[in-house]
Amino acid sequence: MIAKLKGHVDSTGEDWVIMDVGGVGYLVSGSTRMLGALPRPGEAAMLHIETIVREDAISLFGFADVEERDLFRLLTSVQGVGAKVALAILSTLSPSDLQNAIAAQDKTAVARAKGVGPKVATRIVTELKDKVTGLVFQPKGVQMPAGSAPGDAASDPSIIADAVSALANLGYKPVDAHGAVAKVIGDLGDDADVAAIVPAALKELSSI
How many C-beta neighbours within 10 Å does residue 38 have? Predict the structure, then answer.
């Protein structure tokens, strides 16, 4: 089972790259995000790999980081979501945006990806709501402090969910509430709790 490839970029296409590893060319499929992060042909690169073995083929899927690979695994665990659809979603939404959409139950954002209909989008946000909390939550534009980990106050997905729920109960759209919570966590830090996050998020929402 191939888990990582480290070599040189040989050539790229719309949704693939050939990685030259010791003179052997590996055809790797990937999202536009991954392909866009690759260096020019001939330059060194490393990809995290998910290998899918079927009766008629062995397929390699490459990712720029572990977070994107883990989300790919979660997406393909949902009924009706194959590798092609999962890559389309990851090409449309960054890992943090996808996590935000799932946490906010924003099926409209997920349905923007090519090949994803309303039913599949609903299934994705519903089935992955609890599973995605197992990943390290990093709001867009926010750097996790050194040594922080899930379960530390605001970095705890349950704290985030409670804050978003409180704002939703006040009439705000989940996607707007989640965006505001992500923003204020970056300002308040990981020691913030729901009591501190909600008022700050309300101030943020009132300024929109």
Answer: 17
Q: How far is CA 9 from the centre of its chain?
A: 24
Q: Is 125 helix (H, G, I), strand (E, B) or coil?
A: helix
Instruction: Select the more confidently predicted residue: 63 or 178.
Output: 63
Residue 115 near residue 85, CB atoms below 8 Å: yes
pTM of the predicted model as reported, rounded to 2 decimal places: 0.68
Backbone torsions φ then ψ of 31, nearest 5 degrees: -80, 165
DSSP 8-state symbol, 137: P
* Phi, psi angle pair for 142, to nearest 5°: -110, 130
**111 CB-near residues (< 8 Å, 6+ apart):** 117, 118, 120, 121
Secondary-structure percent of the chain, ordered helix, strand, coil, rounded to 5: 45, 20, 35
Cα gap 115→111, rounded to integer Å: 8
First-last CA distance in the chain:
49
CB atoms within 10 A of CB 151: 10
Alpha helices, DSSP H, located in 9-82: 32-37, 66-76
Extract the runs of DSSP E, i.e. beta strands, from 119-189.
none
Whether 141 has a pLDDT exceeding 60, the answer reads no
pLDDT band of 149, cuts 50, 70, 90: very low
